[in-house]
Amino acid sequence: MKKEILELFDNTYPNRDYTIEIVNPEFTSVCPKTGLPDFGTVTIRYVPDKTCIELKSLKYYFLEFRNAGIFYENITNKILDDLVELLQPRSLSVITEWKARGGITETVSVHYSSPL
Amino acid sequence: MKKEILELFDNTYPNRDYTIEIVNPEFTSVCPKTGLPDFGTVTIRYVPDKTCIELKSLKYYFLEFRNAGIFYENITNKILDDLVELLQPRSLSVITEWKARGGITETVSVHYSSPL
Amino acid sequence: MKKEILELFDNTYPNRDYTIEIVNPEFTSVCPKTGLPDFGTVTIRYVPDKTCIELKSLKYYFLEFRNAGIFYENITNKILDDLVELLQPRSLSVITEWKARGGITETVSVHYSSPL
Amino acid sequence: MKKEILELFDNTYPNRDYTIEIVNPEFTSVCPKTGLPDFGTVTIRYVPDKTCIELKSLKYYFLEFRNAGIFYENITNKILDDLVELLQPRSLSVITEWKARGGITETVSVHYSSPL
Amino acid sequence: MKKEILELFDNTYPNRDYTIEIVNPEFTSVCPKTGLPDFGTVTIRYVPDKTCIELKSLKYYFLEFRNAGIFYENITNKILDDLVELLQPRSLSVITEWKARGGITETVSVHYSSPL
Amino acid sequence: MKKEILELFDNTYPNRDYTIEIVNPEFTSVCPKTGLPDFGTVTIRYVPDKTCIELKSLKYYFLEFRNAGIFYENITNKILDDLVELLQPRSLSVITEWKARGGITETVSVHYSSPL
Amino acid sequence: MKKEILELFDNTYPNRDYTIEIVNPEFTSVCPKTGLPDFGTVTIRYVPDKTCIELKSLKYYFLEFRNAGIFYENITNKILDDLVELLQPRSLSVITEWKARGGITETVSVHYSSPL
Amino acid sequence: MKKEILELFDNTYPNRDYTIEIVNPEFTSVCPKTGLPDFGTVTIRYVPDKTCIELKSLKYYFLEFRNAGIFYENITNKILDDLVELLQPRSLSVITEWKARGGITETVSVHYSSPL
Amino acid sequence: MKKEILELFDNTYPNRDYTIEIVNPEFTSVCPKTGLPDFGTVTIRYVPDKTCIELKSLKYYFLEFRNAGIFYENITNKILDDLVELLQPRSLSVITEWKARGGITETVSVHYSSPL
Amino acid sequence: MKKEILELFDNTYPNRDYTIEIVNPEFTSVCPKTGLPDFGTVTIRYVPDKTCIELKSLKYYFLEFRNAGIFYENITNKILDDLVELLQPRSLSVITEWKARGGITETVSVHYSSPL
Questions:
Q1: Is D60 exposed, middle or buried (0-12, 13-18, 19+ CB in 10 A)?
Q2: Residue E67 contacts F where some CB pair is shorter than 8 Å
Q3: Which residues, including other chains, have CB under 8 Å from residue I2's CB and lie 6 or more apart?
């Protein structure tokens, strides 16, 4: 998961708060216990400060998880950490919704707000 | 309903609040009055503290109800009690939604918040 | 509408607030003006105190309305009155949603909270 | 079930085959075994010959079943018999779809074609 | 219902069979018995021969029914007659689906095929 | 738009706040610019004080708009004014949702609260 | 799987072909390999000859599978065999649709027609 | 993007706050990086002060973007700026929801409130 | 509409019939009468012979229509002509479904089969 | 794509035709041109002869495609070839439905019937 892949571009409207929501319903990674693939939808919602995330580079960042063995909870928190570190956003949420395994689905959601 | 079946794993991100929602649409138990099976969807939503619930063990825990005679309201409250005792979460909700009987459906929901 | 039909059972978890929602999409009564049947969905949502309502007896209570001529608004308020008197709940809502007549639908909702 | 309630009107276009489908999602009758109400959707589809069925009288005909104890299969076949006798249609189908009882739904369908 | 309102344009591809389907979910007329408005969806499906129907003029043709008192069955057959006379199509169907009155919906469908 | 058409009936439960929502998905009026019909859904939601609106008279009141040329925004506000004047409700909202014109839809919503 | 549980009743309309479809979305059995429960929807569609299946007894027949270890394909064929032997129907189909396991769903369908 | 295209009309009810929501699901512009078209739904929600936006002119304003190369975030903010400058509304929101590119969708939303 | 933009690739399985369906829900062209844009979904379904259509080049081919003024019926037939000439398929259908104008939608469908 | 991974089990009911449909909505492979992942749903529908496909081994067979670069059309035909060779079924279909790329979706379907 090289977060160096992520590219930013300047926020043209830094004087106002506005919200960008990005949804990737084609996220896949690998279960570290079984080695079998997991499938989920990743939603990122943030209020940009000085920079915005470039969509195509975000797509490549998500691809880094394709063959990585990592738990739902850790994926969600790691995406938050990587994006907060790079974007320095005013606020940012990550929500991951996972397809059923053994008939059971899981959703993990985490939120960051910049200190005032 | 042996709650000993439940396994925990360490929360890797204990310094932040985040939410885990688990949905099992394949829950079944037995009506203590008629002996006939009930079918429902169980949703668990919690903010972990030091530990998280392991999904597969949760599945086996749910299986313990398969042939047990127990009312909707008591199932819901018992799942809350078992999970709160084990997980010691920051907060936890249990929602059970039951398939129609006699044309009537029931939903039971209960919430726990850890004392400050 | 004999509310004596309604049966209660003891709330096993009176020390905590939790919510029970019951939905009956097969409610029918008779329009007192036209004598024609009305069809609706009745939703009851309450926080029990010492007692809970027994589902099967509730079904028979609803059946009492089948051939009774009574307006939407009065049905909704009467169900609230009957259930509050019997259950003495911490809070209780009744929502009735009626199928279209002359292309127009109506929904009536009323809420009760026990005095502190 | 007095089928005398049904009124007919002349088919203005008897020289061509065309199809009339009538759907009543608010049908209710009583289970002859339990005395409890059944709820269903009745669909009638026919190619008229000399006469068509008047909708309002059909509504009153359906109302005759409201407090009658009769099985799904017999309701369906009786409606077919009554309508075929009156309408003398080129063809006619009756489909009844019943709400779940004990978690199980039933649909009954029967078709009539006039002899050449 | 002045069918003179309808305009045609030349079919550019008369050497092949192809199908044009037009759906108007905003059709309204008046019930000749009650004087109350009826609402429906009109679908026209045809294989053009030498001419096609111009959409805007069809819209004005439909408007002619707005305040006219006419039965479902007759509207459907009249639209077929008007369009067949003008378009001389290879085949043409008219389907009208009507919003519920007294909880009951009706659909009328009629088909025309040009003689070989 | 003769609001004299509207009839009221006494509120049987004036000692409690409850909400009545009425939805008419079959509203139509005429665009004052093009003369073409508009189609929309009108929702009225109110807390009655001494009186309630009679549904059938409301249907006839809506019919008054059928051939009237009036803008979306003015219809919405006029319905609010008429109903508030008559009903003297504790609160009342009107929401009108209009079918697409040129691919664009519009929704207008306005709320009234009685002064304390 | 004691098929003796099944009860029949006389077909009142044996002189005509008509179709009865029964759907049970609350079927559950046990996977013989893993011992874990399977969940599915069972659909039975048949043209009765001299007898019809009684719904409540069918419900109890389905319950016999609740703790039995048996493959999807065999359940489907066994239900067909049992019902054909008892009902001697003019035709009968069984369709079983199974909830996802490992992200993969399966549907099995089999049809019987009585020899002429 | 000539905002001069936009036409206003007088708000007939300036003494009360009410909300107008306009949705255009047929918005298209061009990606400045790839030159390929983007497709989205634009929602505008505002409380008018002295003037309202005329719908047809808004449609032409949206058409100005058809062949313009401009990013999602900038379109959203520019529409807000143009409409706020012209309408001087009490409040106004713009939400743009974009069709998937590379399997990923984006939604941008921005809100303006007039200073008190 | 330069059909030279279209690229083909060899069909690896020419010895068997199989079907390829391509759906583009983001098609847009211009109405030749009003100059306003039309929006539609184009579906192409074909059985390849020696060659298949390359998806990206098809996308660019569709883009050629973006600013072209052409009627629904002619677009549909022209796409058929272009693709049949290039692909020489065993069979090919084109279906275009257009968003509502004046509340009315249109669908055009045409089919080609290679001579035996 | 090692088809050796696939396991079979004996068909217990070889004397009758019945249909097994398997759906995997979590299929993923890699586009050989761009190196980017493709996502699709694979449906297999077959009438078994002497053997059936074991579901878990089929899951592992699908996993072989996860990092393989192969076109939609070839995946579909290869799955057919592999399964027909192994299962020797009475008939077998493969349908693959692919998520949008550049706003365009594709579905490929192929059918095999055993020679009589």
A1: middle
A2: yes
A3: I61, I64
H40 strand-pairing partners? H27, H98
Residue A93, pLDDT > 80, answer yes
Active site residue I17: no
pLDDT of A1 reads 61
Report pLDDT digits (tens) over A58-79: 999 999 999 999 999 999 999 9
Angle at A59 between CA A55 and CA A65, to 5 degrees: 150
Q: Are E91 and E46 spatial neighbours (Cβ–Cβ below 8 Å)?
A: yes
Among candidate residues I100, I42, I28, the one with its CA nearest the CA of residue I70: I28
At J1-24, the pLDDT tens digits run 677 899 999 999 999 999 999 999
pLDDT, block means (10 residues), chain F with 116 residues? 87 97 97 94 98 96 95 97 97 98 96 91
- pTM for the complete prediction? 0.95
Q: What is the pLDDT of residue E61?
A: 97
Strand partners, I52: I9
**Chain I residues closer than 8 Å to J107 by CB:** 19-21, 23
At A12 the three-state DSSP class reads coil
Are F61 and F29 in contact by the 8 Å Cβ rule? The answer is no
Q: Rounded to whole angstroms, how far apart are CA atoms I70 and I93?
A: 20
Cα-Cα-Cα-Cα dihedral sign, residues A86, A89, A91, A94: negative
Question: Could you give the ipTM of this predicted complex?
Answer: 0.94
Per the prediction, chain E carries an average pLDDT of 95
Chain centroid to Cα A116, Å, comes to 23
Cα–Cα distance for residue pair I33/H18, rounded to 1 Å: 37
Q: Which of the pair, G102 or I38, is modelled with greater confidence? A: I38
Whose tokens are 């199908």? That residue is E19
Q: Say how many Å lie between the first and final Cα of chain J, rounded.
A: 30
**Cβ distance of F21 and C108 shorter than 8 Å:** yes
Longest dimension (CA), chain A: 48
pLDDT mean for each 10 residues of chain D (116 residues): 87 97 97 94 98 96 95 97 97 98 96 91
Distances, alpha carbon J47 to alpha carbons B26, D78, G83, in Å: 29, 40, 22
- H/E/C letters for each residue in chain E? CCHHHCCEEECCCCCCCEEEEEEEEEEEEECCCCCCEEEEEEEEEEECCCEEECHHHHHHHHHCCCCCECCHHHHHHHHHHHHHHHHCCCEEEEEEEEEEECCEEEEEEEEEECCC
Terminus-to-terminus CA distance in chain A, angstroms?
A: 30
pLDDT (average), residues I55-66: 96
Q: What is the pLDDT of residues I67-109, one digit of tens each?
A: 999 999 999 999 999 999 999 999 999 999 999 998 999 999 9
> From CA A5, how far away is CA G64, in angstroms rounded?
57
The beta strands (E) that lie in chain F are given as: 8-10, 18-30, 37-47, 51-53, 91-101, 104-113
**Smallest CA–CA separation between F36 and chain I, in Å?**
9
Q: What's the rounded Cα separation, in Å, for the pair C80 and G35?
A: 47
Provide the residue type at H116 as one letter. Answer: L
> What amino acid positions of F are annotated as catalytic residues?
31, 38
Pairwise CA distance, residues F110 & H11, whole Å: 14
Q: G101, A99: Cβ pair inside 8 Å?
A: no
Q: Please report, rounded to a whole number, the percentage of residues in chain G having pLDDT higher than 90.
A: 93
Dist. CA J67–CA I53, nearest whole Å: 24
Q: Does B28 touch chain C (CB under 8 A)?
A: no
Q: Which of G59, G63, G99 sits opposite B26 (nearest CB)?
A: G99
Q: Which residues pair with F85 in a beta bridge?
A: none
Is residue E51 within 8 A of residue E10, CB to CB? The reply is yes
Q: Is I52 noted as a catalytic residue in this protein?
A: no
